[in-house]
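To: structure subgroup
Subject: Chain for Friday's discussion

All,

I'm putting the inputs and outputs inline so they're searchable in the archive.
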Amino acid sequence: MKLYFLVEGRRTEKKLYKAWLGYCFPQFRAVDKPADLATDSFFILAGLGYPSYLQRIPSALKDSIQHGADHLFICIDAEELSYAERRQEVLSILENAAQELRGEGIQYQGQVHVIVADCCTESWLLGHRKLVPRNPDAALAELKRFYDVSRDDPERMGCPQGNPLERARFHCEYLRHVFRHHGQTYSKERPGIATEANYLAALRDRCLDPSAHLASFRLLWETWASLGGRSDVETALVTP
């Protein structure tokens, strides 16, 4: 099986997905170019953020055809749009690209999966319930009073009224405070402990527990499971 990924950003998502794929599909190897795709391998293309990744969707689809990718994943953030609006935006571009390629006499025979993080990757990462302390410092305590992501669904968190940050940036800032409490750092360049197998396992547990939180992450998880991805990621032997 050959997997092709177009992901939202330049660095964070590439590092996260490469690590997470290593835990779920330890038999797969990462390749640097789509031309190197072979059986049991995956390629990750950085989308360079919104709206740049939109321009890369047609080339990702064409690459997937040319290099025989069985599955094309487009993994992006909803950010300030709703989940449905962002998904529809991507589907429209995909349809236009597919139509143009059909005009050239070529058609993608694989499956396309649109994964929209609601509202962003950091919303997913806030789903590590045990990472949010019961007795945080003052700054994090104020964030918890606004919205306790260990109790309520991080994907449903808004932004405090009057806060100068947009919703996605606020989620990122919240995550940084959580990491900082544990002496860790999180940045767009270095997602840190979020690449670890136990972190992915915590998100798995959150999306599968009765709370039904992290619904958009659950779609990714269940899609990978349907492709044979292992669920016991804590015991994966591959180190990212």
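Points worth raising on Friday:
The first helix runs from residue 12 to 24.
The helical segments are 12-24, 52-66, 83-103, 121-125, 138-146, 167-181, 197-208, 215-226.

D.
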